Amino acid sequence: MTNYNFGEILLLKFPHSEGKGVSKRPVVVLAQVDVKDIVVSKVTSTEQRGSYDIVINDWEEVGLLFPSVIRVDKLATLSKDRVIKKIGTLSEYYNSIIKDKIKQLFHIE
Questions:
Q1: Going by fewer Cβ within 10 Å, which terminus of the chain is more open, N or C?
Q2: Phi, psi for 99 (deg, rounded to 5)
Q3: pLDDT, tens digit, for every residue of 81-90?
Q4: Cβ-count burial of 44 within 10 angstroms (0-12 exposed, 13-18 middle, 19+ buried)?
Q5: Residue 36's pLDDT band (boundaries 50, 70, 90)?
Q6: Strands (E), 8-57
Q7: In angstroms, rounded to a whole number, what is the distance separating the alpha carbons of residues 24 and 76?
Q8: Number of helices (H), then strands (E), in the chain
Q9: Whole-structure pTM over 0.70, yes or no?
Q10: 38, β-bridge pairs
Q11: Are 106 and 82 in contact (CB under 8 A)?
Q12: Which of 26, 17, 11 has the alpha carbon at shortest distance from 83?
């Protein structure tokens, strides 16, 4: 099974919160938990709304189709079986911001 790294952008079959159905959507990998699962954060083309949203300015360079935002507070642990394909990889600039937002979210110093 493929391994995924922090900051990679994947297209996957994301389950709806009601548990009925799935949507294809981009996500950012935050961690590979074990051989089968990854922790991801949603990526959306909806404009920035909250303090945990990160605007991806170079969205085309990382393989996204639309201007996008990482929603660091929208996390999920999902099976790697849901991955459709790897889209791209964020730069270290974004990885650093994501890590800072995670620390804020979980009140880690």
A1: C
A2: -60, -40
A3: 999 999 999 9
A4: middle
A5: very high
A6: 8-15, 22-32, 37-44, 53-56
A7: 14
A8: 1, 6
A9: yes
A10: 32, 78
A11: no
A12: 11
Q: Which of 84, 90, 74 is nearest to 40 (CA)?
A: 74
Structure token pair of residue 28? 């950012």
d(CA 44, CA 70): 7
Q: Is 23 exposed, middle or buried (0-12, 13-18, 19+ CB in 10 A)?
A: exposed
Domains and CATH numbers, the chain: 8-105 (2.30.30.110)
| CA of residue 75 relative to chain centroid, distance | 8
CA distances from 29 to 11, 43, 65, 79 (A): 11, 10, 18, 12
Q: How far is CA 54 from CA 32, 63, 79, 80, in A?
A: 21, 16, 24, 24
